[in-house]
Amino acid sequence: MQLGELEKLVLNYLWREHIADAKQVHSHFEPRRGGTLNTIQSTLDRLYKKGLLTRVKSGHAFNYSPSVERKALLGSLIQTITEELAKNDADAVLEAFVDISVNIDEESLQRLEHLIASKKAERKKNQKQRKPV
Amino acid sequence: MNLVMHSLFLISVAVLSFSVASALIAHAFLRWSNQFNPRSRLFLLRLFAAWPLLGGLVIGVMVSLPSIYHDSKLPFDHCHNPGGCVMQPASHMLSIGEFTLFIGLLGLLFWATINALLQWRRAYALADSIETNTYATLAPDIHVVEATQPLAFSVGLFKPVAALSTELIRLLTPQQLDIICNHEQVHLRHYDNGYKWALRLLCAFHWPRVKRAILSEHAVTLELRADQHVAQHTEDPIAVAETIVVMQRLIKPLKTSEPVCQFVGSALERRVQYLLAQSPSRDLPKCSAALCLITAIVIITSGAAPIHNALEAILRA
C-alpha cells in the first residue's frame, strides 16, 4: 500500500496516541508542518478509506483510531522482506543475484577469522616498529 | 512498411548474432575484467550486458539506413557483385520464419519489460512500507525497523532507502554499525538497486547462463565497490572485513529458518580477501565512456554504406 508523506506521519501519530479527532491531529502537526484543518481531515478520510483507520462519530466530529496494529503491519513487512531476501534470484528486489543462502562452512569462516587476526597482528607489529624509541 | 519490417528483421538477426558471440566470449571476458578495480569493472560489465541490444541496433541500423535511397524500398534490391549474387531481390513481405524470429525477440523484450515493471512496483511498495514503519533514522536515508532478525539492506530503484533492524543495532558495536551504515549509503548514493534493475532488462537478449553470470558478477562488484569506499572512508579495511565476518556469524544460526542480511550476502570470501589484499588493480581511463561513444559514432557514420553494400553483394542478384 502506498502512503503519502502526511498519511505516514498521521498514521504514526495515531499509533502513538491510539485515538484522536481531526482537531487534535491538526494541533499536533500545525506548529511543525503548517497546513489547514481541511488537509488533515481529508488525510484522515483517505486513511479511513484505505482501511487503516476506524472512526466513531462523536458529536459533530469523528474520532479516529488505527484499525491495523503497528506490529501487525510491521510483521507483514518483515515477512515480505525476509521472503525477498530468501528469493535471492533474478526476481528479487532486495538482494537479487548473489546467492545469500549459500552456507559458508565453519572451516572457511574460521580461516577468514584467522586471516583477519593475522592481519591485525601484523598491523600492530608495524605500528610498534614505527613508534620512536 | 516493407523496408521497416525488413529492417526490424535485420536488427533481430544482428541482436541474435551478438547474443551468440557474447555467449562464446562471456567466460573469457568475465575473467579478463577481473583485473580491473570495481569502478572500471562495473563499466565493462554494463557495456557487456548491453552489447547484444546496442550492437544489434547499431548494425541493424547501419545495414538498413542506406536502403532509404532504394527506389524499391527494400533493404537489398541490387547486386554489387559482377559475378552475380546468391539470392533474388526481395519483393515480398517477411517470410514466416523471418517474422517468427522478429516476434520471438520482441516477445523476449516484452517479457523482460513486464518483469521489470513488476519488480519496480514491488521495490516501490517495499521502500514505502519501510518509510512508514520506520522506528528511527540512524543517518539520512538509513531507517531502523523493529525486527528480531539482524537485517541490513537497501531497497528502491529511483529513491532508494536502506534499513537496519533493531536487533542488528543491539548486536553490533558502534564501529561495526558505522561500517554497515556507510556501506549501505554507498549503495544508495550510486543507485545500485536501480542499476541492478536496469541491467536485468538490458540482459534480456543474453543467453540465460550468460545473463546469470553477468548479473551475479555485477552484484558482487557492487558489494566490492561499497566495501572499498567504506575501507577508504574509515581507513581501516581490516575492520570492514571483520564486520563482514561478524555479520556472517550473526546470521549463521538463522540460515535455515530465517533469511539473512544483504550486507554479507555476496561472495563473502571474495569480499574479505579483496579487502585484506588491497592489491592495486587496473583502472580504466576516466574518459572511457566518451571514447566508446566517439568510436561508435565514427563506425556508424563511416561503416554504414560499406556494410550495406557488402551484404548486398552477397545476398542479392
UniProtKB/TrEMBL annotation, chain A:
Q: Which InterPro entries match?
A: BlaI_family (IPR005650), WH-like_DNA-bd_sf (IPR036388), WH_DNA-bd_sf (IPR036390)
Enumerate the Gene3D superfamilies for this protein: Winged helix-like DNA-binding domain superfamily/Winged helix DNA-binding domain (1.10.10.10)
**Entry's Gene Ontology molecular function annotations:** DNA binding
Q: Which UniProt keywords apply?
A: DNA-binding, Transcription, Transcription regulation
Annotated GO biological process: negative regulation of DNA-templated transcription
What Pfam family is a match, any one?
A: Penicillinase_R
What the record says about family reads:
Belongs to the BlaI transcriptional regulatory family.
Protein's UniProt name: Penicillinase repressor
**Species of the source:** marine sediment metagenome
From TrEMBL, chain B:
Q: Please give the start and end residues of each transmembrane region.
A: 6-30, 42-65, 99-118, 287-307
Task: Output the Gene3D superfamilies linked to this UniProt entry.
Answer: Metalloproteases ('zincins'), catalytic domain
Q: Which UniProt keywords apply?
A: Membrane, Transmembrane, Transmembrane helix
Alphabetical list of PANTHER family matching this protein? POSSIBLE SENSOR-TRANSDUCER PROTEIN BLAR, SLR0241 PROTEIN
Protein name listed in UniProt: Uncharacterized protein
